[in-house]
Amino acid sequence: EAAVTQSPRSKVAVTGGKVTLSCHQTNNHDYMYWYRQDTGHGLRLIHYSYVADSTEKGDIPDGYKASRPSQENFSLILELASLSQTAVYFCASRQDSGNTLYFGEGSRLIVV
Amino acid sequence: AQSVTQPDARVTVSEGASLQLRCKYSYFGTPYLFWYVQYPRQGLQLLLKYYPGDPVVQGVNGFEAEFSKSNSSFHLRKASVHWSDWAVYFCAVSEGSALGRLHFGAGTQLIVIP
User: Fold this and answer.
1) Cβ-Cβ contacts under 8 Å for A102 (sequence gap 6 or more)
2) Cross-chain residue pair A48–B100, CB shorter than 8 Å
């Protein structure tokens, strides 16, 4: 069964609204990541975490917050959604001793 | 800064033909390199990875890649493409630190024609 699960899988949000994307992993991994995928840009790192109750900024953190309340859960929060945040968002996890990322199936967000 | 360039946004091959997807990286030091594949409506899956050592690495489903330090390249190859290989392929470089942050290329869409 899937070891990294994301919810919701798709969502339509209104501009200025709040959006929370959730990620749950059963890999027992310490590291978790949120990536954004846009056509022509590949994946870009938004936030990541290497331990519960701590998050770090990635390459494009502006407009996003992250929360890691437990080892298994990692959320991405858009306090004021904007049109430019329409994208597919991927969560991933990684064990401490390796570089391999294990991805969820993605959350497609459309902001109108 | 670390970066990856995949010069081909789209590659079309006939089923049974050979394949090469190009990847150029920029990295100061010895890179850790990866190829991930994204099938339609799915997340990314690891295809193969290079850690310093043998320059040719084998992956799943008959894929292999060759690391070249002189050319700063990590091209993906397959001898005979199958229709099920239709997907988007991403090359990535790791910072190699304990944090293991990956920097991805823009991806190459592989289209397989009968």
Assistant:
1) A3, A4, A25, A27, A29, A92, A93, A94
2) no
Q: Around Cβ A34, how many Cβ atoms within 10 Å? A: 27
Would you say B47 and B27 are in contact if contact means Cβ atoms under 8 Å apart? no
Amino acid at B7: P
Q: Tell me the per-residue pLDDT of B85-97, one tens digit each, with 9 for 90 and over.
A: 999 999 999 876 5
Instruction: State whether residue A3 sits within 8 Å of chain B by CB.
Output: no
Phi/psi of residue B61, nearest 5 degrees: 60, 30
Residue A57's beta-bridge partner residues?
Answer: A47
Task: Pick the residue from chain B with its C-alpha nearest to A31.
Answer: B99
| Residue pointed to by tokens 């991806």 | B107
- DSSP-derived pairing of the beta strands A87-94 and B3-5: unpaired
The distance of Cα B95 from the centroid of its chain, to the nearest Å, equals 16
**Tokens 């040719």 sit at which residue?**
B56
Contacts of A92 in chain B (CB under 8 A): 43-44
Are the Cβ atoms of A106 and B105 closer than 8 angstroms? no
User: Residue A61 has which token pair?
Assistant: 């953190």
What pLDDT digit, counting tens, does each position of A1-49 carry? 559 999 999 999 999 999 999 999 998 999 999 999 997 778 999 999 9
